[in-house]
């Protein structure tokens, strides 16, 4: 009986004679198609060996071989890393790629990446140059720092700074600043990696200047201030300002380092957001070294930017770790292109997607929301209950944790279909549409949706509804 069943499965030689498979063979390698056929046949044999399939179901499954093989081949050939539509309203969404890069900047990057470039070539002397020189001048100009260096990300920047300045020495940090920043970036662990010895002072909610002062001794290399980017301790609290720390560092002749995290270069309180200390503020206070991310509030590529006194930056440039953490030409070009906008604040707000989304007025968002609402209503009739509601967007990326920016969302509910299934179908769309589900309602925040994406969203909803 069993061996009889197996004989219903066509042979590879027969399968490749099928028209659908033949057309697959025309555009794909023979190995890939044959491999996909074998996988499909293996699956069928597994189903048979479990013994719970009727002959009729088995024949149906066998009839699907050609379509399934085609799907397998297409799936193998299609990129797994792809563009999505962010309807969550979280602007710096770490899971969805953090900062978006301006398209003009990407054209410039494309030209650099697809052609030869002066990456490490000095066009004046014709001799070897430094890859960092392209960025250093513009970072100095924008931040007012004496020197600058860029590495792979901010976590790497902190490791490099501590390794270069404080290996086997002590670094004093407030207990209130021993933070974990998503993933596995924990300040105490990072310090251990760098070989610096952590001396934590004060308590979770209060640290005084004399806490730092008492901790400074022969072995102290630096005082470290960590910007608690992703949380706030509220209530009975006090921490030391950077100014006070800089004054103490000068008096005791130890370096003062600040891990700013987000790295804002524009005072965003002018645009109605909560005040977040800028890199320029830190430099003005006289701090020795500041580190910050390239792809958080700065709105550029993943990078860790280190600015500060030349004496210290030079130590990092020469440090062997710097070679391991070095950035590639894509990062240099993308960061340079993004930073160029900062030479004119209005241009930065207008052209850097992260800043533009964060500062879009509620009026503009409402106009967009109503437009999308009408377009969706036009094509779905009465299946869904859909309206525009007041909601809050988040900055994300562990930046401005308490900031809730008023926004407008499309809210979808339904008595006919499961909104949970709708969320899943949208997520499985060819261009995935990522929405927020809350209490059986689906939300789409117009702050992070561009009008050019409306068509994709409407088509996505239409095809989702056909398949629910
Ligand atoms: C985000 C953050 C980091 C890590 O930065 P990455 O660029 O993501 O590596 C480190 N320190 C602080 C304070 C941060 O907010």
From TrEMBL:
> Which cellular components does GO assign to this protein?
cytoplasm
Pathway assigned in UniProt:
Aminoacyl-tRNA biosynthesis; selenocysteinyl-tRNA(Sec) biosynthesis; selenocysteinyl-tRNA(Sec) from L-seryl-tRNA(Sec) (bacterial route): step 1/1
**Signal peptide start and end residues:** none
Positions carrying N6-(pyridoxal phosphate)lysine are 296
Domain L-seryl-tRNA selenium transferase N-terminal stretches: 6-45
A GO BP term here is:
selenocysteine incorporation
Which GO MF terms are attached to this record? Answer: L-seryl-tRNA(Sec) selenium transferase activity
Keyword annotations from UniProtKB, A to Z = Cytoplasm, Protein biosynthesis, Pyridoxal phosphate, Selenium, Transferase
Q: Which residues form a coiled coil?
A: none
Give the UniProt family note: Belongs to the SelA family.
Under what name is this protein listed? L-seryl-tRNA(Sec) selenium transferase
Q: What is the lineage of its organism?
A: Bacteria, Bacillati, Bacillota, Tissierellia, Tissierellales
Point out the gene that encodes the protein: selA
